[in-house]
Write a structure and sequence with these properties.
Elements lengths: L1 E5 L3 H14 L4 E5 L2 H11 L3 E4 L8 H9 L6 E5 L4 H9 L4 E4 L4 H16 L8 E3 L4 E4 L4 E4 L2 E3 L3 H12 L4 E3 H9 L3 H18 L8 E4 L3 E4 L2
Parallel strand pairs: 1-2, 1-3, 3-4, 4-5
Antiparallel strand pairs: 6-7, 7-8, 8-9, 10-12, 11-12
Helix pairs in contact: 2-3, 6-8, 7-8
């Protein structure tokens, strides 16, 4: 497994490296201290996970994440001193899979990384390679490809898992509780904003405006229409 750290403080890079060496020595680590170099590193190294700081000396971590999402759906965990809810929501809306505020316990960081990777690895598959979910939406469950109106759609792992969960229950309301447990392994109250953000991102990528594919069943959950 390979991880990329994009962080401008050498002491933090060293601390994360030591934590990996003691608890997860088989992981290959690469590090960059600027956003632009970090984006290039992700593009060239194809890591399994990215640990990204927000306060970088050249471009912000938000901009770095935006550029990464243009070519990769690699899971990204933001690590930053910025604990404001606005920043947390901005990180999630930009495509981050998790958000950790400094200072933090490095063993907790490793545990959160494993949780994000486990969610990614456990993306459910179907026996058939192609499934026509609706007249507009098609999912290749084997290769994890999505098309809308015959155009490919690039989804992050969280977005794809959410779409698959809804597709598995097509025509039925998927409760908020089930979405929270299956996608984030948390209680609905802890991730209600996450759910709203990711549904909005999914709709945008599916060109689902006004909503006709992913529809909110107010007070209950979401339903994928045929």
């Amino acid at each position: 497994m390979k991880a990329v750290i994009i962080e401008d403080e050498r002491s933090i890079i060293d601390a994360i490296t030591v934590a990996f060496e003691f608890r997860w020595p088989e992981v290959e680590l690469k590090a960059a201290m600027t956003g632009k170099n970090g984006v290039s590193l992700v593009k060239n190294e194809h890591p399994d996970i990215v640990i990204l700081d927000i306060n970088l000396p050249d471009i912000s971590g938000f901009e770095a994440l935006k550029r990464i999402r243009e070519f990769s759906s690699v899971p990204v965990i933001i690590v930053t001193v910025r604990a404001d809810d606005t920043d947390v929501l901005r990180g999630l809306e930009s495509g981050a899979d998790d958000y950790i505020v400094k200072p933090f316990n490095y063993l907790t960081l490793l545990a959160r990384i494993k949780t994000v990777l486990r969610r990614t690895e456990n993306i459910p598959l179907k026996a058939t390679q192609d499934t026509m979910v609706s007249s507009r939406l098609k999912i290749d469950f084997v290769n994890q490809h999505v098309t809308v109106d015959n155009h490919p759609v690039k989804l992050t792992p969280v977005e794809y898992r959410l779409l698959v969960l809804l597709a598995q229950n097509k025509g039925e309301v998927v409760p908020y509780k089930l979405i929270a447990e299956r996608i984030w392994q948390k209680k609905p109250a802890d991730v209600s904003e996450h759910i709203r953000i990711y549904v909005r991102r999914l709709r945008n990528k599916l060109n689902d405006t006004p909503p006709g594919i992913v529809v909110n069943h107010r007070g209950s959950g979401y339903i994928l229409k045929g």
